[in-house]
Amino acid sequence: MSPVFAHGHLRLYLLVLLADHPMHGYEVITALGDRFGGTYVPSAGTVYPRLAKLEEDGLVTKTSDGRKTVYAITDAGRAELDARADEVAQLENGVADSVKSLADGVRASVGAAMDSLRADLAAAQHSGPTGGSASAGAEASVTASGGRVLRDAEMAVAVFRQQLRADLRRRAARGTLDDAAVRRLRDGLEALRKSF
User: Fold this and answer.
1) For the chain, which end, N or C, has fewer CB atoms within 10 Å of the first or last residue's CB respectively?
2) How many C-beta atoms lie closer than 10 Å to residue 43's C-beta?
3) Environment class of residue 104 by beta-carbon count within 10 Å: exposed (0-12), middle (13-18) or buried (19+)?
4) 25 sits in which H/E element
């Protein structure tokens, strides 16, 4: 997969995020994940060094808030955003394109996995005992394969559920979880269920 941000653009995008309001590091990581619809979430090892460099350059400040370090954009940081407004606009468009591209990749991967799962489940369902020892061995192989795929699918659902619950809690904490978002979630999950 190609890099999500071109050289230097993540640094600029961190300023864009901090221009909204001060955040601690984990909030910055979460905000990036939210902007990408969860398809890209940078590691702490990616974000914190860039925040430190922005502070070193005088574009952000950091203050201690209990056990958390809060980062805020400075006037110099806002001036850089203003001076690079065209680049920021292109960057925002690039983020939208990256989200679409990443989502298409995820959709294709999930679609292929679902096709494989449906085929395995159909094969397991339509194979019945036929009495011969060779047939019994083939049936056991199909059933074992179907069982493995089913376990993989159930694990994917469990991981998705955990990630979605964490995302919902973050949105609720920020006050961005509303009835419309819940309706979209419900409709999307129902559409996915019906696609089986």
Assistant:
1) N
2) 8
3) exposed
4) helix 25-35
Report how far residue 145's alpha carbon sits from residue 143's, in angstroms, rounded to the nearest whole number.
Answer: 5
pTM of the model: 0.48
CA distance 118 to 187: 22
Tell me if residue 166 falls in helix, strand or coil: helix
Rounded-to-integer distance, Cα 196 and Cα 187, Å = 15
Alpha helix positions (H), the chain: 9-20, 25-35, 44-56, 75-83, 85-126, 133-174, 179-194
Task: List helix spans (H) across 127-178.
Answer: 133-174
pLDDT digits (tens, 9 = 90+) for 38-92: 767 888 998 999 999 999 999 999 998 888 899 999 999 999 999 998 888 887 7
The whole-angstrom separation of Cα 24 and Cα 18 is 10
